[in-house]
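Case study: squalene synthase.
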Amino acid sequence: MGLLPFETFSEFGALIQLKYFHKLPAIDRNDVSLKFCYDKLNQVSRSFAMVIQELPDELKHPVAIFYLVLRGLDTVEDDTEYLKENPEAKHELLRTFYQKIRNPNFHLENCGGSLNATAHYADLMLHFDHVCKIFLSLDQKYQAVIEDVTMKMGCGMVDYLGMTGVDTVKDYDEYCHYVAGLVGIGLSDMFTAFGEDKQALFKVGLSGSSEDPLKKSLSNLMGLFLQKVNIIRDYAEDIEEGRTFYPSSAFQQFGLTQVTDLKDPKNLPQALKTLNYLVTDALSHAPDCLEYMSSIKDPKVFSFCAIPQVMAIATLVEIYNNPNVFVKNVKIRKGLTARIFMETKTLGDVQKWFSKFAADLRVKLEKNLDDPSAQQTKQALDNIQKKAGEKTMKNGLKISSGFGLVSVVSALVYYTLYGRSPSTVSATRGSSILGRLFGWTGLTPSGI
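Here is what the predicted structure looks like once written out:
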C-alpha cells in the first residue's frame, strides 16, 4: 500500500478544514450595499477576501472598501477599450477617481468588459455606487487614507498608461511603488490609526533602489515584494495582453533584445537566467518583510499581513528556474495554499515558513550553481534564514482548535478506501471532485 506522504497528508487535511470547517465571520447581508461589496470581493479576489473578513471589526470594512476602490481604479486603467477614443478623458478619470468615490451614485457603464479575467469586473463598475455608499459610511480617518492612496495611484497610473514595460531595476521599483507600495503604505496608515506602531511600520528597510525614506520604508517594501512576485509569475498571461513589466535591463544583460524573446523556446537558457535574476531581486525584500511583520501586535492584523507574504515566497520557490513560467501561469498547489492559511498565525509560524521555503529554494539552487545570479541568490537565502532564525517547518499537520482530528480521520478514511495518497488518486482521476479540490491537476488557487 505504501506510506502516505506527510506533506500530502497535511495539505489534504488543511483543505478539508478550510473548505468545510473554517467559518468566516458573518457579514450583515440585510444591507444591500454591504452585501454587494463582500460578494464582489469574493468574486474578484478569493484569497484576499478571506483574510480581509478575518480582520478586527474596526478594520474589516475599511480594508474591504480600500481593496474594491483600488480594484475599480485598476479596472479603468486595465480596460484598454474603455475611453479608447478619448484618452484625455481616461486620464482625467484616473486622476479624479478619488473624488468620484464621494458621489453615492457614481458608477461606470461599459467599463471592464474587455478584460479577459472575469465578467465580475464589469459588474463591479456598473454597480460601483454600492462601494461609494459604504465608503461614505466609514470613519473619516479611514476615508482619508483611501482617498490619499487612490489619488496618488491614479496620478501614477496616468504616467504609466500605454507603457508596455520598464527599463531599469530602479524604474521597476518605482512602478511597483505606484501599483503596490502605495497599497502597503495605505494599509500601514490604517493599522496605525487602529493602534499599531507607526514608527515601526515605517522604519527604513535595507532593500530596494530608492533613496526616498517613504519608498525605502518597510511598508512600501512589503508591497514591492508581493508585486514583484506577481509580475514574475504572470509573464505568460501578461505577454498575451501585450505588456509585461520585466525590466529590459534584466534580459538585455543576457543577450535578449525584446521582452517577447523570453517566450521563444530557443532562448530558454537566457530566459531562465533572466527569471532567476528577478527572483533573486524579489528575495532581497524578504528580510524587510519579516522585520515589518515582527512589529505587528494584533493577531488578526498579523495574519492578514503574513498569509500573502508566505504565499509569495512559496511562489518564488515554485517559479525559480522553471521554464513553465514562459508558457503558463505557475502557481502553488491548492493544498499548500490551504495549509498556509491554516498554519500562519504567529511570527514563529512565519519564520518557520520563510526558513522552510528558503531551504527548498536552496535545494534547487544547488542544482543550478552555474547560473549567473547563483551567488546573489545564495546570499539572499542566507539573509532570509538568518532573519528567520533558522527555523524549520514540520511536514506534519498541525492539530489545533479541536478540528485537526477530523481532518486526520477524513484523510485516513480516504487513504484506507483507495489505498494510496490523494495526490496519486487525483493524478489518475483528474475530473474527480477530489482532483478539482486538491489542485494536483493543474488547477491552482487564485493569485494573492
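For the exam, be able to explain this: Residues 399-404, 420-448 have pLDDT under 50 and may be disordered.
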